[in-house]
Amino acid sequence: MSNICPKIASESSVYELTSVLNFLGNDRVEHNISRIILGLVSSISIDENPDVKKLNILMSVLKVKYNLRDVKAVAGDSTLDYNTIFNLCVSLLDHSSDLNGECFFSLCSVLQQTLLLMGKDTFYSSVTNIVMKCKQDLTLFVNSGDIEESKYAYTSRPEVSLRIFETVFAALLQKQEVDNTFNPNEIEKNKLVDEDMHNLIASLVWCGVEHISIQTLQSLIPKVLMYGTDITLLQKIWRHTTESFQSDLSHTFQILCILAQFYLPCGSQNVQISYNVAEENIFWKILQSGLISTDPLARKKALYLMKRAVDGFCHKNTSFTLQCPDAVFWWDPNYSSKIWEQFFLIIESLEEKQVHLIRPVLPVVNFLSTPSKEGKVLHISLILCVFCRIISHDNSFVVKWGIINFVRIHRECHFVRYGNTILGFLDPLMNAVNNSALYSGNPEQCCVSEVGEALQYLFESVIVESSHDECRAFFCCLLDVINCISWAPVPLFNVTYALACVPSIPVWDEQRLGVVKDFISEALRCQCTFIRGAIQCMLLTTTIHFADCDSLSVCTVSHYLGIYRSSESLKRGTSSWHDTVEWIKMFVSKEDAARFVNMTLSTSADGVCLSTRAVARMVILLCDAALLPCCMMDETCSLARSLYTVLSCFHNCEKRLYASEAVQNHALQLIMCLLNESHTMSGDDLVRKTVSSHVNLMMDQIFAFISRRMSSVTHLQDYHLVDTYLSALSVFADEPRLMPEVKANLRKLEDIALQVLVAPTAPPMCHYFSIKALSYISYWLRKHCHCTCAASKPCVILQRQSILISHIVRNGKLNSPPVKQDTELKLTRDLQRLWGKLTSGYLEAGWSIVANFLHSCHSAEDQVLSLRNAEDIVSDIAIALEIGGMNVLVPLMNIMEKMLPKYLISEMFKLVSSCWKMIFELRKTELFWTTMEAFIQMLFQPSVMATATCRDHLLQYSDKIFFHGQAITGLCNMLVMQLQKVVTLSSPDILEYYCTIMVEALTFGPVHRRDQSDCCVDNEVRARAVQLLLSACGSSRSHQVAGKLMDALILKDQTESSCKNRYYGDSYLHRLKHRIMQSLLILEPLLDREMAEKLMLWLQDSLLMESQQPSVRYQQEWLLVRLVYHHLDLRDRLWDTFEQAREKRSGSICSFIAVAYHVSCVLNDEQEMFVERSVHKILPWCMAQHFSMRLYAQTALLKLFALCKLQHHDQIAEKYAIVESSLQASMAHGNTVKNAQKLQEDFYFSAFHPVEHYTLETVFYDLPRLANITCEEWISTALLKLCGMSRMNHIALENSNIALKQFNAAAWVLKTSTGTEDNGADMIGVHKNVQKKLVPWCSTFPGQDLGSELRQKREEGLIVVASLIDRLPNLGGLSRTCEVFGVSEYVVGNLKYTEDKQFRSLSVTAEQWVPISEVKPQFLSMYLEAKKKDGYTLIGAEQTSNSTRLNDFKFTQKTLLLLGNEKEGIPADLLPFLDVCVEIPQEGVVRSLNVHVTGALFVWEYMRQQALAGTHSNRVHSQEEET
Asked: Are the CB atoms for 1489 and 1392 separated by under 8 Å?
């Protein structure tokens, strides 16, 4: 077996050889042995690989020679030349190819046996020479520049030198143990173990090659230490470890664990030399680093070392305190033992994955953090280690508990006063907070999450309890940690919200504002617009609270505020703007404001490193703060004076041809930003009027400047300037005060742009500028002008656009971008990118002009088709889709919207398919939503939907939209909103052909992850679908639409349920069925007799065949009640169902009983007859075997009897009076009383009315809430109103009373709810008994590399001999028992047994950790005799005439237990070798126990006695020390 050491497996060979030699005669034994050795040595050649069998035989013979040794004879033995054997072994080792093979190990064994047989002089001579050679080889290895394994694999082999070292020192130690004459003096020792050897060993430990390091630590260092008896090497390794542990924590723990017996000595391991590192503070800090490591193996090793260290202090039973100011460990014998026991309990429990194993242990943290009378029980850093492990757990409940309780304990322990300790905890804390699953909750509740509240409390407590310097350090460190994390949106909002809610304290200087600025620009770039805006508002508020105003300047604040987007957060008129204004007033004076304005607005801003947006925003803020007056006042600085200065560069710009264009461009950007920033949500004010009035005065000059630039921007580098000029046009046109001037100047600009466009010699940039300007003008005309073609008046749009349209449409010029000039043929990469943007923008502008024209003028379509026929336009559109880029999609689809379905439907839908593919290439961009909206408007318009040939295409694309809408939030909303517009523009009758779309919308909504819930958006889809449903129900063909919808809904339920017979609460199938039933409830009043019968049959089958979730079952029963109520002839079918329930599924009878009861309550005509029939059908079920059926029937009957009395149905009351009294008596005992009361008080039997509560509020809000379906399915009346449902035809919006609002979900319904695990972080009671796997440190070593050491024989103790057992399961089970209880050696008849599957199935890897050796049954007698000579007490588990009872027998420490065969027991020829036979007392009839059970009982009894003896000896030893 590969994992069993060969030297252990050779015991059987030695016994065999000894028996053969004894057979030959005792007088010639040594002579025969020498001859065998000489023969074997001569047969082994250096030139070829040695035979493993020969080596094993040679090793066995040498071992026999050593066992028969006579010291004097060996010293003078001239028959054998051991030096020759020694040199042969060394040479073979140097040439060995397989360093892990059996041959290599056999050579090492032969070498060790040879050294043991040498005389003293020869021994030391050989040892000294080989040690020097190995030192040279290893020194060369560690001094090489690159010691990767691949580098030395064939040149230098340190493994061989290391193995020789191990063998030599093992022989030295064995020599010292058996022969006192071989004890070397100090001079001889120093030759082998000197300073150079120590340095070499230390270098090997940190050589960087893992297996070399492990081999050195495991095999070489222990032998060197035991031989040298000096702690210098231990000190050297420890010193290097403390210096490098932060860079290589894993290797640090590997060193400490392997050398634990020397660094952490304990009573159970008797070592002669040790260096106790537990008395150094750095050791405990290293352990803390390991406990919070993300590597499970590092945590396991750290816990092992900590347990071992604590156990050492526990055995000393004396007080201990580290003598250093930052000591993290102390020991008090009065209480520390209990504290550390609890500490280890929580740390070990946190390694479990199942939350039910961790929950009971969590309150232990409170015990650890509670100060005792003597002071704190543990150092704060150890408590933080526990919290670090809690908040890094995989389970969200555990993490949430840890965060909330850390904050709770924070104030009690004053964590913030521990400086770097708590600051180091901020990183894992914030990483734990960055988990969206911690914030899932009820979307109906708008309150902050528990984690958010905890963070707010934490930040507040830091401010309240800490000094200013401590607060500065804390919040600066917090900001640095936040800046380093890649945040999810919801956690980041909660963190920033918590920061924004704390009191003000000046702790952030100019540098920290720069960190926040960088964070906003980088971390928020990819966040959703809404969450990004909210986080920006929170960060702005936080900055206002934390900024140190004394260290800030106006320029610094302006630069910082410039990063906020006005469209998302910092917009004039909002609360954020108001707070910023008040903040600026705190540290900016009027003089500061004047200096800032003069510096930034009086020149072209040369030397001012501020963006124009930052400057404009700060100017407006200063005006709102009353620090900068708006109007001119004397010579003081004002907004008006500054604007005059800025705009002066445009004065007479037509004549000043050599004016600085850079100044004018900067001024144009500045006034654009001032207009944008001065816009307020509350209307005009003095600031806005001042800016717009000054700009209006210079509007003609500004337009003249733009017009002049249209023909002068000749270079490709001017692309961004052109975009600035175009943006200016948009800003000016959106300002109402500038509208008259803009309207007048746009006409002039249009003429100039048209002239530039048609000029063939104009540069490409001029063409681009002109067509983009014309594109904007066409958009402006579409927005502000109205077509008058229908009124027989001259159409302004047609007049102004005809020439332009004719130029760009005729001859296919729409797809002809500008051509590069000769100077632009070779462009750099950046300029080539600009050229691509130019051509794409040019094509987009041309198609936009056509699209705007078609949508703004009634005669546009005819004019366009007169210039180019439909086939050519379709062809042009196809080409544009290929070459125009993504920006051209929207105008192309706007044009296709006008052409569908009039022209070339088949060709047009090919283009539609291309558009669909291109849109999804934009999935990760904001352009996706613009293009998708245009796509939906193009397809789903009244004219297209009414065309029969288009319906299949529309249904196909609607399916795609709903499919992708599962993952793309908001996509389906666009479709449903467009359908609402279509119904408004046309007629609800159009929906008759699109029932499939209606069904998909009514049942839409995937099951989101708890941290990605978008239920509000999904609910809006269903709410709008309900509005469409009700609109369709109010059409002229309402019955036909209702029938088709009902069939489609039933078919969808059957399709989805066909593959799943069972489903779970809040699963997708549950939600789907719930939504289907909601839709059917709305349709029910519109169904005719035939449809109602079909629906009733489906409902009955569904209830009979399936066990439904409460929300579905409630609605099915309600729907049945309404069907029976509205169609009297369907009542007989209800009574038939009672009989079917008995045969198909008796559990369904509860539903039909409820239906019968509710129908009885709502009937007006024939109520008495129906009630009597109901009583007759329900009465037999009062004696059902199932408790719930019986209870349901009895409760329903009592309610019916009460109804009879209320309605004065005296005949029924008298007829069943005895039944009523019997029911009352039977329900007054046991659990029936409590359960019946709960059922009668439930809303379903006490308040719910199937007719009066038939409202949208009940269907979509009250009933889902009371049925305890997830709150993601609740749709409020507010949302229904928002989606257009104010007045409806056959169903009311809201209930007329609040009866249902007063109830909560019933207890029996709550039991079906899911997700009960994460119920907040409430405190849990302390459990004294918690489930925990026992991990004793003293019998388990961490690390996967220690297997070979663990398989070595343990301390002399119990040997279990199972060579007589031949059944592999028994052998495997015994190996597990031996490993668990720490048996010294486990002996089997054949080592190959351990490789068998039957053995391993019961051993569960125990064979890897327990020492196993092989002794064949025929050699047991010799083995037992040898063990008796070694001092072992031999006992046999056998029933004999003189056997001792197990409970009376006293085990010695050195005990050998022999187990017999399963059938025959222990053979009679082996009994004489035993010292005693022991039997297990029996009371039963069976003769004996299984041998595995017998062995386990013996091993347990031995361990129990030895443990008691050890405890007693320790107690006596302690008393002697005290004496």
From this structure: no
Percentages (nearest 5) of helix, strand, coil residues in the chain: 70, 5, 30
Burial label, 458 (beta-carbon count in 10 A; 0-12, 13-18, 19+): buried
pLDDT in tens, 14-73: 555 556 555 555 556 677 777 777 777 777 777 667 777 777 777 777 877 777 765 334
**Residues of the chain above pLDDT 90, percent:** 30
Helix or strand holding residue 1479 (H, E):
strand 1476-1479
Contacts of 723 (CB under 8 A, 6+ apart): none
Q: Cα–Cα distance between 499 and 511 in angstroms, integer?
A: 19
Element (H, E) at 838: helix 829-856
CA angle (866 as vertex; 864, 869 as ends), nearest 5: 85
Helix (H) or strand (E) holding 1360: strand 1358-1361
Strand partners, 375: 372
Half-sphere exposure of 1200 (CA within 13 A, CB side): 35
CA of 592: how far to CAs of 133, 555, 596, 598, 642, in Å? Answer: 81, 10, 6, 10, 15
Q: Sign of torsion, CA 1262 1268 1270 1271?
A: positive
| Measured distance CA(149)–CA(156) in Å, rounded | 10
In the structure encoding, which two tokens stand for residue 868, read together?
């180019």
Q: Please, are residues 159 and 215 in contact by the beta-carbon 8 Å criterion? A: yes
Sheet of 1385-1388: strand order equals 1412-1414, 1385-1388, 1358-1361, 1455-1459, 1433-1437, 1476-1479, 1444-1445
Cα gap 689→698, rounded to integer Å:
14
Instruction: Answer yes or no: are the C-beta atoms of 251 and 291 closer than 8 Å.
Output: no
Identify the sign of the CA torsion 244, 250, 254, 256: positive
Strands 330-331 and 1455-1459: unpaired
What the block records as the tokens of 1522 is 């005290």
**Beta-carbon count within 10 A of 1064 CB:** 12
**Is the per-residue pLDDT at 1337 higher than 60?**
no
- Rg, Å, the chain Cα set: 46
Total residues found in the chain within this entry: 1523
785: which 2 tokens?
């002008």
What tokens were used for 1321? 């972080």
Per residue in 170-226, pLDDT (tens digit) is: 888 887 777 665 665 555 555 677 888 888 888 888 888 888 888 888 888 888 888
List beta partners, residue 372.
375
Work out whether strand 1444-1445 and strand 1455-1459 pair parallel, antiparallel, or are unpaired.
unpaired
Q: What is the pTM of this model?
A: 0.76
Locus of tokens 């950046």:
830
Cα–Cα dist 1117/413, whole Å: 58
pLDDT value of position 190: 58
Using DSSP's 3-state secondary structure scheme, residue 1465 falls into: strand
Q: 1381 in helix, strand or coil?
A: coil
Beta strand segments in 204-270, E: none
DSSP SS3 for 1113: helix
Compute the distance between CA of residue 219 and CA of residue 163 in angstroms, rounded to an integer.
8
Tell me the C-alpha to C-alpha distance, in Å, between residue 506 and each of 60, 510, 1326, 1346. 82, 11, 42, 55
Residue pair 1283/1088 in contact by the 8 Å Cβ criterion: no
Q: How far apart are CA 1401 and CA 1094, in angstroms?
A: 59
Contacts of 146 (CB under 8 A, 6+ apart): none
Where is 202: in which H helix or E strand? helix 195-205
Name the residue type at position 1400: R
Strands 1358-1361 and 1385-1388: parallel
CA distance to 1050, 1076, 1147, per residue, from 1105 (Å): 15, 18, 10
**Packed helices 336-349 and 296-316: angle between N→C axes, nearest 10 degrees:** 160
Q: Which two tokens stand for residue 930?
A: 């613009």
pLDDT computed for residue 136 by the predictor = 85
> Token pair of 1052, please?
């969808």
